[in-house]
Amino acid sequence: MAAPALSCCLSLLILLLLLAIPQTSTAVNGLSISSPGRNRSGGGTLEGHGCPTASPTRRIFTAYASNITCFYNSRANVSCIWSHDEGLRATTCCLHSRQPQREVLFPTKQWNHTCELQPVRPGSWACNLVLGHSPEAQKLTIVDIMKLTVMCSEGGKWRRMMTQDIKPFDYIRLVPPHSLQVVHIETHRCNITWTVSQVSHYIQNDVEFEARLRYADHSWEDARLLTLRQNQQWISLENLAPSMEYELQVRAKPRLGSHEVWSHWSQPLAFRTVPAGPGLPAADLNPEHLL
Ligand SMILES: *[C@@H]1O[C@H](CO)[C@@H](O)[C@H](O)[C@H]1NC(C)=O
Ligand SMILES: *[C@@H]1O[C@H](CO)[C@@H](O)[C@H](O)[C@H]1NC(C)=O
Ligand SMILES: *[C@@H]1O[C@H](CO)[C@@H](O)[C@H](O)[C@H]1NC(C)=O
Ligand SMILES: *[C@@H]1O[C@H](CO)[C@@H](O)[C@H](O)[C@H]1NC(C)=O
Ligand SMILES: *[C@@H]1O[C@H](CO)[C@@H](O)[C@H](O)[C@H]1NC(C)=O
Q1: Which residues line ligand 3 (CB under 6 A)?
Q2: How many domains does the chain have?
Q3: What is the rounded distance in angstroms from the CA atom of residue 101 to the CA atom of residue 63?
Q4: Which residue segment(s) compose the domain that 224 sits in?
Q5: Which of 41, 47, 120, 196 is most buried by its number of CB atoms within 10 A?
Q6: Tens digits of per-residue pLDDT, 201-247?
Q7: Euclidean distance between CA atoms 211 and 252, whole angstroms
Q8: Which residues 6+ apart lie within 8 Å of 111 measured at CB?
């Protein structure tokens, strides 16, 4: 191994040793779960059934280079993807999260969460740390730090694969907007509203939106992109063609500076503009608009 890599491992080791000191030996013993024939289907991705409740305190198993990417929806859900070099033959891998020791001012409030990683493609595993039963509950503050540990079981023995600290508010990806609705429609214009859920009060005023509009039979690549640089949950579309079918999608993003990521696009909303006055072939007339 090259010298810089060695010194990096050494400092990591020292850090881990420091972190390991306050942990009790019972927690360590609890990790030696042997799990032949464990029921995977019962576990699901939401809670860490079958996962140890704490991470092994032994040093990191460095045979595989790996990294983890997480997105926090700003309320009670942190979705993570763990990627590693090919060749790992672990049967079960879990993601454990807790507050770093230095963050714990009120030990009674200390939290920890675990989810069972599921393979999503070769070399990648994913799971969601669901921090509470209510999706709208504010489970982390804007200064919270999460200590993440990936552990895998091989032959009934849990090994610590990597640890990483993240500040979830630096990695926000909101839930896509939903409940898109036409509130007003004419021949050439239309007003559409939507709703966003699970948006933290910390970022509420900084949310912006992007909408895209296409003719129903065109691809999204040709869509017109419309930007709303404020938390405005409606859009007034102008210059539309009469009696034309359109589709609109919306996505959301907080303006926070560091690692801005758009939400996925919402479900598309299809709508048809009002026909232009009389004189059109009857087939083009939408009965709803003849009232
Ligand atoms: C595994 O769990 C599922 C759902 O909880 C259950 O239907 C199934 O019978 C279980 N299988 C075994 C082998 O325990
Ligand atoms: C994890 O949290 C539970 C309660 O939520 C607690 O009983 C348990 O001791 C905690 N485990 C660790 C290792 O902090
Ligand atoms: C957590 O977020 C992921 C997407 O990031 C989603 O697929 C999953 O359903 C969410 N889980 C809950 C309980 O909200
Ligand atoms: C994460 O790890 C995988 C597998 O080791 C590697 O292919 C990928 O390039 C890494 N990504 C980053 C951002 O380090
Ligand atoms: C569009 O509808 C929303 C919600 O009813 C309303 O607040 C907004 O003023 C409307 N916009 C226009 C341009 O009519």
Answers
A1: 46, 77, 79, 128, 130, 135
A2: 2
A3: 27
A4: 178-290
A5: 196
A6: 999 999 999 999 999 999 999 899 999 999 999 999 999 999 999 99
A7: 9
A8: 98, 99, 131, 139
